[in-house]
Structure formats: structure tokens, C-alpha cells
Amino acid sequence: VAAPKVEETRVSLEFGAGTLKLSTGANGLVDGTAVYNVSDLKPEVTVDGGDVMIKQGNFENLPPFDGFKNEWTLMFGKTPMDLEIAAGAYDGTFELGGLALRNLTVRDGASDVELAFSQPNTEPMAQFNYSTGASDVTMTGLANANFKTMVFNSGAGDYTLDFSGSLQRDATVSIDTGLSSLLLIIPPNMNAVVTIDSALADINMPDGWSQNGKTYTQTGEGPTLTVLINMGGGDIKVRSKGP
Predict the structure, then answer these.
(1) Cα radius of gyration rounded to whole Å, the chain
(2) How far apart (Å, rounded) are the C-alpha atoms in residues 31 and 23?
(3) Residue 198 near residue 188 (C-beta atoms within 8 A)
(4) Rounded-to-integer distance, Cα 68 and Cα 65, Å
């Protein structure tokens, strides 16, 4: 897909089940391949000005069978864009560092996803929304995403949100999750405020944080990361670095 010659570009991916891999490196807007062994799964690509949709073929009407294959490997270019990913139960590997994302939205079902910003996002991101079912999600380098606001909603599952990277401005994160295991990785030199609203969560904070009621504070340098957590139950761990 060539880069549209418009000021605002929106890329939407609709993916059912299978394996979805996203990375950088496209010469245009999107380059990549789709490997599938059922003709009904052939992707559909539509372009309408700055709106680009890449949609999986009809998955819901397929009968269950062994040997099913559906694998997308897509690369994005450096065109400033809004990116929206809607998926079902799938395995996802997203390397989004170095892109120019103005907004990012991910909505999926029961999934296993690794999302990373190994390099800074080159555009200020207004909002990053992630909504998932009962899943296993790991996100790293989130400070590099350069978002102003992040909203993470989930069902029961295991979730790691790693805010390593370079925080370029004050950022607010809102987390609403069910009975889950939540790990936050916040570098020790980052200004951070974490407020936890949960009657049933087991909370484990590292040394060096001060507490005032439901609010925990770490004094560092530069912009401030503010995290608001609403958890039904489970455990919350805050660490200064990953394993």
C-alpha cells in the first residue's frame, strides 16, 4: 500500500485468529505478506483517500478443522498515521518503535501479545487505547510511545506494562482490570505517581517509594508518569526493572 498524499492517514487492521506480526521498514505505507491455507481467509485491502483498511476474509463461517494457517507479517513506513488494530484470539508480536503514530488503538479477545517501542515514536501520540479479554499481554518501552494518555482495559489475565524508554512529557495511564496479575516496570529515575483503587489486590512496591493512603510516589527527574489503577482483585507488583 503506497503512502496516501493526504495530511491525515488512518490504517485499520481487522484480524480474526492466527499470528499477526507488525514491524517497521516499509518503503510505502504498508508492505507485507499474508499466508493462509483457506481461500476464504484472503485479506481484503481498501483505500479511500487517507483511510486504509486491511481486513481478514470471512473467518466466522469456517468449520473447525486441524491444520488451519493464517499468518500476517506486515511492515509500516514512517508516514504519520493513526493505527487501529481489531483482532480476535491470536498471537501478536508488534515492534512499533520508530514509527510516527499519532493515535494507537488495539482491541482484541483472548490473546497472547508482545508489543514494544524499542525506539521513540517520532510523533507526539495523543492517545493509546488497549482493550483486551482474558489475555497474556507484555508491553515494553512504553515511555518511548510518547503518548499523553494511555487507557488499558482488560479481563482476567497476566499483564506487564514496562515504562522504560525516554519520557518526553507528562503522561497519564488509566488501568481498569479484573482478577489479574499486573506488573508495572517504572525506571528508578522517573518521576511517578501510582494510585491504586482495589479492596482485594495484593500490592508489592519497591524500596524508595513513599505512600499516602492509596497513592504511591517516586521522586525522580524530568516529566511525571501518573498511573491510576482500578483492579477487581489479584496482585499488583511495581519494579524498577524487568527480569
Answers:
(1) 19
(2) 10
(3) no
(4) 7
The one-letter amino acid at 88: G
For 75-107, give the secondary structure using H, E and C.
Answer: EECCCCEEEEEEECCEEEEEECCCCCEEEEEEE
User: Residues 30-68: pLDDT tens digits?
Assistant: 999 999 988 888 999 999 999 999 998 766 665 555 678
Helix (H) or strand (E) holding 46: strand 44-48
Of residues 241 and 21, more confidently modeled: 21
Are 74 and 31 in contact by the 8 Å Cβ rule? The answer is yes
Q: How far apart are the first and last CA of the chain?
A: 39
- The pLDDT, as a whole number, for residue 65 is 59
- What one-character-per-residue DSSP string does 18-37 give? EEEEEEE--SSSEEEEEEES
